[in-house]
């Protein structure tokens, strides 16, 4: 494909050699003269000069004094994602249920659903059109999954929530008779687990994206377009409202509420029943608090040695004064 | 089933309409007039007034001035669990080995054992009567599992412990020739891993309950009726004594001892060879310490800005004094 | 096998009864008169006196005043590992692809490769000679794995990296068109996940050892002979140089660099783009810092109550002085 054709596809203009043929995509470091790459952040601006890429997707303010072949876009990374899809049509798993997969009775599979090898789907499961399961996924009975879901290998959806009654020195299972409902356009990472509700529903909203090894406890409600990075876990009954962004290895107790648009930094720990305000507020640390407070707290601790010295000095001066007065 | 029949089953008395028919269970918010629900904690007391449930299981001191149909019990949640089992007989997986499962040679499977689809069981494995494996579980050779175990999808029992000898700039495997022994009535969460011992046995005691993605390292000994929440991990040789309660995302180094009945809060980090006292003592933080100490430490840090101000004020006053004296 | 034969195999000398027959290995506590054990650390020195083992592998300076049958070696644990391999030839999974496994098209499997039950391997995957996959492993298309790899059950190699473009209120997938390359002699723990690169390669170097539930994000480069303990996760683009040692439950942001030979303690959190120096430097805590700084910071916090008292005392004395002066 020619540079001018790619620019045309993006409805963008180009500078340089529009007739140059592009046959692939690559990172700035790896790209050769027939490949296209993109220049995202500040570090990339520097690397761009050394890149051998045949064409670069760059920001409007990119300094092209070197006279490279470039396509200018407000969002180089997003535009580049579109170019990847244009040049490398994704090898989609074929629709249908792989012969080694096991699908229970009374299931409803939408058009184009792909169930990979060794997947196991329980009874009465509903899966919306276009959803794709990679290998070794397990879905327990009665779970509902929306359209265009992408479920990665080893994910387990609908296992029992972790609920027990302590009676006579032992734990007796609190029956987990609820289920799980996953919205449209959800991606669930490899080896993640989403437990069914004790009663009612554990839900994941439309467009939510979960990384690998994320654990969603029973009766949690994850909103629409929520992003959760790897190895984060939430206990029972937690609510993550729409468009919240949760980092990796975050831990949440029971019945936490993260309001719409909040950002929780990686490694944060949120105590049970805590409510985190939304609208872009950033939380950090354990117990999780607003980023500014977290940084102040770190700075405070780093100041302790200096405080000790100041106190020692004060003591000395005071002793001298007392001596003088005697 | 009628309210008076349910009360009779619990050997409890009821107030209100004993002839009301109940056909299901639900949460307070979701329950309708033919469903039963329960009122557990304080928050639930408030929600109970608004609930449309046909019947409520409540504490002895529940204020029923509204004249609802209620069943009074000392433990509403435990009683409700029994009602669930009464009204919704759990759909048990059928006994037997699913045709897609693979069971090795010389295994002993007790009566009623159910091995789900795509499970893989090694050689010489013993599984006690009534144990149920959900899909995609892997059990390595020589592992022993007791009666009535419930193993969730994706769990891996008996993989090699993580032990190496560093020789000539590289790591050489320390052969992991021990095994794993799981007691009776144990529940193991989805995608959890329990490694085999290097020598001897990694053990999980009767009645222990493990949540999802729990990692038990080689040669650990988890006691009876221990509860471990999701994403907690323990390195080699750690001992958790009976009835300890371990929160989620706890990390333990090698050879930790958690004494009987100790409680370890979520996110705690326990250093290698540390011994935590038991009998209901609560530990928190990293490094893990008694809850009171942890809270004092948090409070201490929050006081630093005030200390800084006090020191600044002292300095000022001292300087004034010195000036006066000159 | 006789004690003198075992000593001969190690090219070591023995003390005591060289004609004693040894038929197995065990821990110090469990070993009987026909079993061999080893004495590693200081604690083991004490336990050794009580052990009923028929023979002990000990350090050169072991106090054998009790006149036991011992073999002296500089590295008792390493030598013992060799003895285990001598006495208990490991039961290797048979070479070949298990009939329940699914291997895609155009794959290249080296000599002696063993693919366990219910494994799923995508298209165009290359696996080097002698590599062994336990059950339920998933490898996505286009991944390369070196020789003598040992992949434990439930591991997922090559799932999509976690990359999205936020457009019009929703997340659009950034196509993950790179792949994964695993070196020779790598061990990957149960339920670990190694994501494919967005562009280019996620790599794990020769001899690296990963424990269970380790998460390697897209475009990470893990060096040769790196050790990573359980439940550690790294986001995208992180570089771990050769011979680094990473503890359990460590979290790393994007584009972290851990230099060759660095040691990162369990539970540490490393911020994005941070560079940790190597050569045996030990890091600890969140944010990760050199161990000495971490310990000072802990000590600082523990001193705050004393500082408060000192300040209160200073205030008192100053007030007295002021009083006197008036």
Furnish the topology, listing elements before pairings.
3 copies of one chain form a homotrimer.
Chain A: H1 3-9, E1 14-15, E2 24-25, E3 35-38, H2 42-50, E4 55-58, E5 70-72, H3 76-87, E6 96-97, E7 102-103, E8 108-109, E9 114-115, E10 120-121, E11 126-127, E12 132-133, E13 138-139, E14 144-145, E15 150-151, E16 156-159, E17 164-167, E18 170-173, E19 179-182, E20 187-188, E21 193-195, E22 201-204, E23 209-210, E24 215-216, E25 221-222, E26 227-228, E27 233-234, E28 239-240, E29 245-246, E30 251-252, E31 257-258, E32 263-264, E33 269-270, E34 275-276, E35 282-284, E36 289-290, H4 291-325
Parallel strand pairs in A: 2-3, 3-4, 4-5, 6-9, 7-10, 8-11, 9-12, 10-13, 11-14, 12-15, 13-16, 14-19, 15-20, 16-21, 19-22, 20-23, 21-24, 22-25, 23-26, 24-27, 25-28, 26-29, 27-30, 28-31, 29-32, 30-33, 31-34, 32-35
Antiparallel strand pairs in A: 1-5, 17-18, 35-36
């Amino acid at each position: 494909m020619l540079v001018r054709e790619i620019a045309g596809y993006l409805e963008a203009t180009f500078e340089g050699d529009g007739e140059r043929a592009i046959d692939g995509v690559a990172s700035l470091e790896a790209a050769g003269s027939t490949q296209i790459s993109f220049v995202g952040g500040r570090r990339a601006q520097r690397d761009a000069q050394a890149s051998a890429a045949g064409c670069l997707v760059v920001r409007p303010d990119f300094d092209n004094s070197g006279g490279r072949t470039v396509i200018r876009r407000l969002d180089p990374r997003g535009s580049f994602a579109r170019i990847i899809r244009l040049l490398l049509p994704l090898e989609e798993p074929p629709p249908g249920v792989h012969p080694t997969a096991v699908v229970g009775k009374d299931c409803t599979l939408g058009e184009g659903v792909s169930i990979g090898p060794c997947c196991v789907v329980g009874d009465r499961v509903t899966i919306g059109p276009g959803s794709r399961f990679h290998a070794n996924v397990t879905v327990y009975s009665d779970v509902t999954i929306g359209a265009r879901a992408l479920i990665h290998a080893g994910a387990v959806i609908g296992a029992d929530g972790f609920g027990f009654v302590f009676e006579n020195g032992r734990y007796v299972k609190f029956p987990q008779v609820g289920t799980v409902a996953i919205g449209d356009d959800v991606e669930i990472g490899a080896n993640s687990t989403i437990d069914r509700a004790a009663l009612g529903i554990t839900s994941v909203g439309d467009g939510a994206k979960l990384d690998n090894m994320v654990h969603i406890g029973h009766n949690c409600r994850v909103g629409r377009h929520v992003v959760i990075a790897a190895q984060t876990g939430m206990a029972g009954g937690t609510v993550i409202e729409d468009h919240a962004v949760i980092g990796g290895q975050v831990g949440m107790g029971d019945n936490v509420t993260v309001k719409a648009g909040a950002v929780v930094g990686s490694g944060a720990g949120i105590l049970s029943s805590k409510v985190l305000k939304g609208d872009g507020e950033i939380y950090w640390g354990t117990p999780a608090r607003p980023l500014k407070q977290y940084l102040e707290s770190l700075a405070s601790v780093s100041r302790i040695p200096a405080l000790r010295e100041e106190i020692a000095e004060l003591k000395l001066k005071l002793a001298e004064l007392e001596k003088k007065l005697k």
